[in-house]
Amino acid sequence: MSTAIVTGQPVPGSSLEGDLRALGFDVRLAPDAADAEAALAGVPGDQRVAVVDAGFVGHVHALRLGLTDPRFTASAIPGAVTAKPDGRQALRRAVEDTGIAPDAVAESMEAAGTDVHRPELGELVAAVPADPQARNEARQSVAAVDDEAIRLRTAVKARDGFFTTYCISPYSRYIARWCARRGLTPNQVTTASLLVALIAAGCAATGTRPGFVAAGVLLLFSFVLDCTDGQLARYSLQYSTLGAWLDATFDRAKEYAYYAGLALGAANATGDDVWALALGAMVLQTCRHVVDFSFNEANHDATANTSPTAALSDKLDSVGWTVWVRRMIVLPIGERWALIAVLTAVTTPRITFYVLLIGCALAACYTTAGRLLRSLTRKAKRTPRAAQALADLADTGLLDGGTVRRLRGGGYTAPLLAAVAAAVLVIVAAVSGFGSWAVFGAACVYVLLSSLAVSGPLTGPLDWLVPPLFRVAEYGTVLLIAAKADVQGALPAAFGLVAAVAYHHYDTVYRIRGGTGAPPRWLMHAIGGHDGRTLLVALLAALLTPTDFTLALTVLAVVVALVVLAESIRFWVASARRGAPAVHDEGEPA
Prior knowledge:
mainly alpha; six-stranded mixed β-sheet; two-stranded antiparallel ribbon
């Protein structure tokens, strides 16, 4: 329960008290400053509290945006200000200093150093009229604008892909409203989306044409629910740290489980082994995401963040048709899942993976080339925070940067070392037979060079390439060694290991984005880091027979999955219980 303190003399005929109660507030009247201070003191310390001028006139949705958004410690709109428990002291001091006028209270809080969020209201009305005529005009303005229509429209993500914007969002927003009116939460819709996707993967695993058709239909329905959960969060302002994590991780779990279902379906239908293609698709998609994450974190708070390439990109975004072409080229989640669903229904798993790999490869080349051009032409000074984020994303566990500190040069040395290390390892693994000690030797070289690459702060213009290069090296080596084993079960075991490690890498990204920091160092060391895992897989291949290697790889996948999942779930559940700041990702479509 939250408490709203309505200050000043009540206005006859005002619906304010009813509107506040409809938003879940316990309403208390405070005609003067002494009453307001007493009311503030009487509100339990673990509750949100709002101070609202009794003369407020405006839309209910304006009050909702200004007073109920859980992402901000304090927020305000004209005539109303609110604070969560951690901002209550600042609110109380402001009331004591300035009196009961909410606008003055908000200004006082900002002057004292408290960040006060002021939502963009657009056409929504929020005002405290000074006289009866102004009040009448404000009420007419309220009646002239349908705030429910605005609420529905703004429930849709501001930036999204073509397929999502034109084929899903026009009706999924109404599903979101239906869910809100029945008390469903975004997390429940997210979970439903995961279950539908897992059923779709199960249908694909049957290997029958009806199963493939059902899988495609269910995958699209899962995506509708995936859009609905975010729209429900925006519609009802039900943002949460746990919800953002579930939404992000379940997206990856759904897609990669579906890849596994397709691989099983191909084997059941015709005996066609496409596990290498399924694992390749997962590796390519994960590395694409790491490129995006690393680039964005490297430039999150960079200064002088301009370049001719960025200016050209902004200019192209001002031309309507180029916006949609560029968004479709990168094959975002909507276009990608629609492509997978249609191909599953009408072709074979092998064709589906071929088309997916080609499309994702072209998208990866396009986005990476653009980021390279921006980085090379940008004169930006990166911050220690960005360098730390890149070091965390690098996931070095066996020999961390402190082991060989000050041996690495500056400029482009870090990405060059990482590229050489990855190239040596992947090429040797590709040309060597299974069990070759040459791969283990290349893995040793990789460990040393990769550690050298992160031995200094990652502040160079292309240092954001280091984490994705490490992902290519680790995932690619596991894929190649498992393929060379040429025994049943080796590639599915490799798929499981890469999936578990990829989950850990995604989890690291979401922690950094949420402002909670990277996973603890003990976890990095416990699961070996990218260098330790790569070295271990190469050693196991050299020591064991293909059959024993498959068993060892399966055990390693299970152990890594159990460790990272247990620590991740513990962390996110504990963060939600501690009341960690709510987040909601409105970035690039995944």
